[in-house]
Amino acid sequence: MSQTWWRGAAIYQVYLRSFADGNGDGAGDLAGLRSRLPYLKELGIDAIWLNPWYPSPMADGGYDVADYRDIEPVFGTLGEAERFIEEAHELDIKVIIDVVPNHSSTESEWFKEALENPAARDRFWFADEPLNDWQSIFGGSAWSQVPDGQWYLHLFAPEQPDLNWANPEVHQEFEDVLRFWFERGVDGVRIDSAALLIKSDTAYEDLDEVHDVYRRWREVADEYGERVLIGEVWLPDQERFARYLRPDELHTAFNFDFLSCAWDPRDLRRSIDLTLSTHTPVGAPPTWVLSNHDVTRPVTRYGRADSTFAHGGRLHGTPSDLELGYRRARAAALLAMALPGSVYVYQGEELGLPEVEDLPNEVRQDPMYARSGGENPGRDGCRIPLPWSGEEPPFGFGTGTPWLPQPEGWRKLTAEAQRTDLGSMLNLYRSGLAIRRERLGDGTLTWLPLGEEVLAFTRDSGLTSVTNLGADPVPLPAGEVVLASGPIEDGLLPSDTTAWLV
Ligand code: GLC
């Protein structure tokens, strides 16, 4: 792969706790992931991004990091992580890890020291009383009190105290953490809550000084060559978003505008055009994201009358036509893979898993659920352990009882069941990624005028992608169909279907 492998990469997101369990304790781990590397190789991805794997009390699924330089014992050991990186590299798969710089954990050494010694509190946001009325993103106040009466800021759960980026020690610490992992061969980092680091008394999102942090990180990354910085930047203003991607800052960032779109040709075209026009001036490749560990799975989302995504209530319990959603998710997968730039695949998307909406409340673990007083169901429904094989739970996930229950009906969705079914979602992803590797990825597109309800474009390689979002079948342009998300009859592309032609 070239110096700029990340510009067109297909990146597979591993939510480790739910990927594969190697030791039978019901939680996914590095042993499970290592044993499934051949599956990922066969799927045809270029890189793996892992959610946080550090020691953590798991108040927020590992986004409460107690030690940035080690591995959570439930997941394995640092030695195993190093072996995993080597094994992935042997298969020509890059490894991207998650770095969480906005906040740490109440169990981190720094926070424990701060609790014991008020003189050591400047690495966090401590004050004699709340400095503002900010609400936590998970619900409730963003300020909590410690036993001696002071308050500290946490934009997320109380177990996730925000770090104070006005303190040079915090900068030093994270530059060291980056080096620690780059030296162990990690090819890139996904930066959690990347726009929130810098705070004033009245604002915390997208303050200008945050760019100084990433300019410095870019210098660190560049010292190691071929390492990529990927921002988790949720900003509605795409011009502001693109500022993170200036040539001396982050390499890429997740495209949440595209993810949040309704399954609607106008909304999607608007988002694609906006994405291309904001990325081109800064020279950064766009990313195409349909799903991740925080959002409702596409099969469920696209089967609803309102198919947009927003964090709020997540439209939980709104009726979804899963057959329709599945069909659209197939069409969307090929659309996303065909667009210029890199593409993300969240584990289970390639199996067409739906959101699990009927989890018993007592098993829900996401702090979003508890902190919203149950109003928001939270994100557990997209984090269910993967079904690998067999006829009943745990579906080959491991020998123990999975940490979240799997639906009985997933027997039809196991990787094993889909492997031999040529029409399966798994085989659509495999074929799509294989063609993508040869002909798609980084570059530009040219729109083809096939009507308002048809998203059709040709890529530099000559491949044409056509997605019909209208109700009626439409004629395909000339060419040989090399892949389609559904059957094509008499040269007509049915509703909610994508075809690729050369
Ligand atoms: C990001 C993560 C999410 C986490 C939050 C706080 O949005 O994707 O899972 O809860 O940051 O770290």
From TrEMBL:
It holds the Pfam family Alpha-amylase. This is Glycoside hydrolase family 13 protein. SMART domains: Aamy. Keywords: Hydrolase. One of its GO terms (molecular function) is hydrolase activity. Residues 13-383 form the Glycosyl hydrolase family 13 catalytic domain. Belongs to the glycosyl hydrolase 13 family. It comes from Nonomuraea antimicrobica. InterPro entries: GH, GH13_cat_dom, O16G_dom_2.
